[in-house]
Design brief:
Blueprint lengths: L8 H9 L18 H10 L13 H12 L1
Protein name: Spindle E
GO molecular function: helicase activity; RNA binding
């Protein structure tokens, strides 16, 4: 794994060019969306929040994006 501190600007551009920062339309139907406000409120209120849900419900993709959007 490369040392991030040593990455050149060119290398960073390459890394970021491989990631899509656009929200996908198909995320609207994920089960986790029903708990959006509750999850963000708990993340704000408590130092640790455990989110449990079935595979594919959006825990890994949606919650981090909500946190970034809410910051």
């Amino acid at each position: 794994m490369p040392n991030v501190a040593r990455l050149t600007e060119e290398a960073m551009t390459e890394v970021y060019s491989k990631y899509s920062f656009q929200k996908k339309e198909d995320t609207k139907n994920l089960a986790i969306n029903a708990f959006h406000d509750d999850i963000l409120n708990r993340i704000t209120a408590y130092p640790v929040v455990i989110i449990e849900g079935p595979t594919g419900c959006g825990k890994t993709t949606q919650v981090p994006q909500w946190i970034l959007d809410d910051a």
